[in-house]
């Protein structure tokens, strides 16, 4: 079975990269390099170490922002889910944040926090946090009442109800929110580098676009997608490790 | 009967949900070491009464005594078996069974030893590390039962525990329950809507009538209690009791 799913994954990759290669060779646009040109540009960047230097820059606001969003977001989400008053107070903010076009806020953020790491981290946070908070609070509110009753009848304290029932029970949806939040965080990190000051991978993208070095530009975009996929896979591993029984969905 | 022989006493309990009167002036005694069924049509408040005894719901008025102690919250003297099993899907069978002890801060190796003993007793040995989704409905309820037994409370509260399992499993459960009542020195309070089930397993049956809920009758089937599991279902007193209860309840079933 593992071999079969692996071979299907490989087939899927070959199909997509093949389509990329063919459509580029058919000459749609001179600014659209072939798959192999892009990969050799990526290889050059790896050899020269340029890509690692770039990621050292890009990962700073990304990792810091994602970590802040995760802990703060899950914390606020649990609180919102537990307290109706806090829900009324805080939920509207995150619902508006989720629907607002963030790019429009970037000039304001620059005015407030300058063009350094703080602003970029802030952009990552406001991209990632709303979905984490909203998913977490929704999941906490939907904890099966029979599980809460069960824990109370076996003498759980309020704290134990939260830690041993509500959070584990909400974890699948919390992790779904984290996955969406992390993807949004990636968008935020690149957006910040394109919009605020060109550094890291955003710098490679905008510089190679200006110098018409399209293979490098696509190589940088490709690398960020690969990194995002790896990130999400790691997150999934963490979830499987923490909550083994959740693998098979929800039935009680 | 003096109060020392009653494990649980419910005295003049009222329960209102807003304007709706769910229980009115309910008074009922549950003798020690016996199984008492709360039987009645749906909406008669039997689960409400059970949850008030468990301390999961506050009574609007009135008192509940467990071993002559007034109780208003859940306590170590009562354990609950849930209709929908209420197992934690993220936890293995052994952690689910040991959960009551985990909340009582029993250390891990000790509580797992106790849990293993009860997992074997309910016939689930070999499934310690399975997860609830890997078990059938009947096996899940066995986990729920083992969890309630492992905290060793003198009173066991069972809320329609067999209503979500199939008919064959249900019969087996009823027979196992008779053994359990005989062998464990515990008091059982058993909510059911099945007349046959109530008559089959109970030492005492309290028939509740709805709107507002009240005890209409207490029946103590005695003649066939010592017969073996198979002959009870053919016993004439058993059949007459079932018939009699149905006659008094039928007018309340719409």
How is this structure best described in words?
The complex is a heterodimer of chains A (252) and B (254). Chain A has 252 residues and is mostly helical. Chain A has helices spanning 2-25, 35-48, 50-82, 84-99, 106-113, 117-141, 145-153, 158-195, 200-210, 214-242. Chain A is built from ten helices and no strands. The model of chain B has no long low-confidence stretch (mean pLDDT 86). In chain B, 35% of the residues lie in helices and 25% in strands. Chain B is globular, with a radius of gyration of 18 Å. In chain B, the strands form two sheets. Chain B has a six-stranded mixed beta sheet, sandwiched between helices. A four-stranded antiparallel beta sheet of chain B has the order 2-1-4-5, with helices on one face. Classes of the chains: A mainly alpha (252), B alpha/beta (254). Chains A and B meet through helix 7 and helix 8 of A and strand 6 and helix 3 of B.
Brief summary of the model shown:
The complex is a heterodimer of chains A (252) and B (254). Chain A is an all-alpha fold and 252 residues long.
Question: What key attributes describe this structure?
Answer:
heterodimer; A: 252 residues; mainly alpha; MetI-like fold; 10 helices; 82% helix; B: 254 residues; Rossmann fold; 2 domains; 6-stranded mixed sheet; 4-stranded antiparallel sheet
């Amino acid at each position: 079975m593992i071999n079969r799913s692996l071979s299907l994954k490989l087939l899927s990759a070959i199909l997509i990269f093949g389509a990329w290669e063919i459509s580029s060779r058919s000459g749609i646009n001179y600014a659209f390099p072939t798959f192999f040109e892009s990969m050799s540009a990526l290889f050059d960047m790896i050899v020269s170490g340029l890509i690692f230097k770039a990621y050292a820059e890009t990962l700073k606001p990304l990792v810091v922002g994602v970590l802040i969003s995760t802990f703060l977001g899950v914390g606020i989400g649990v609180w919102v889910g537990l307290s109706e008053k806090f829900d009324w107070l805080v939920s509207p903010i995150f619902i508006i944040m989720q629907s607002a076009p963030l790019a429009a806020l970037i000039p304001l953020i620059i005015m407030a926090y300058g063009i350094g790491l703080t602003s970029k981290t802030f952009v990552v946070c406001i991209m990632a946090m709303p979905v984490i908070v909203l998913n977490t609070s929704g999941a906490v509110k939907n904890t099966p009442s029979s599980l809460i009753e069960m824990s109370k009848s076996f003498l759980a304290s309020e704290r134990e109800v939260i830690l041993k029932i509500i959070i584990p029970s909400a974890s699948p949806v919390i992790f779904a929110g984290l996955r969406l939040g992390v993807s949004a965080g990636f968008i935020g990190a690149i957006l910040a580098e394109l919009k605020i000051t060109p550094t890291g991978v955003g710098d490679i993208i905008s510089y190679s676009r200006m110098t018409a070095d399209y293979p490098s530009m696509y190589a940088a975009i490709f690398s960020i997608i690969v990194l995002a996929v790896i990130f999400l896979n790691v997150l999934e591993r963490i979830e499987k490790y923490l909550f083994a029984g959740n693998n098979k969905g929800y039935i009680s | 009967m003096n109060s020392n022989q009653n494990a649980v006493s419910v005295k003049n309990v009222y329960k209102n949900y807003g304007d709706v009167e769910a229980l009115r002036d309910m008074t009922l005694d549950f003798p020690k070491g016996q199984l008492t069924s709360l039987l009645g049509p749906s909406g008669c408040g039997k689960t409400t009464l059970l949850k008030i005894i468990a301390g999961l719901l506050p009574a609007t008025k009135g008192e509940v005594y467990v071993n002559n102690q007034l109780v208003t919250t859940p306590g170590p003297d009562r354990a609950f078996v849930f209709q929908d099993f209420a197992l934690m899907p993220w936890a293995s069978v052994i952690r689910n069974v040991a959960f009551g002890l985990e909340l009582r801060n029993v250390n891990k190796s000790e509580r797992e030893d106790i849990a293993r003993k009860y997992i074997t007793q309910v016939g689930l040995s070999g499934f310690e590390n399975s997860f609830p989704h890997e078990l059938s409905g009947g096996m899940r309820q066995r986990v729920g039962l083992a969890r309630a037994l492992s905290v060793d409370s003198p009173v066991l509260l069972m809320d329609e525990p067999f209503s979500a399992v199939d008919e064959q499993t249900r019969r087996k459960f009823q027979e196992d329950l008779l053994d359990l009542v005989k062998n464990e020195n515990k008091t059982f309070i058993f909510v059911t809507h099945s007349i046959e089930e109530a008559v089959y397993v109970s030492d005492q049956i309290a028939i509740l009538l709805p709107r507002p809920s009240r005890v209409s009758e207490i029946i103590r089937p005695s003649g066939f209690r010592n017969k073996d599991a198979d002959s009870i279902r053919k016993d004439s007193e058993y059949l007459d009791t079932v018939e009699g209860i149905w006659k008094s309840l039928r007018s309340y079933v719409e």
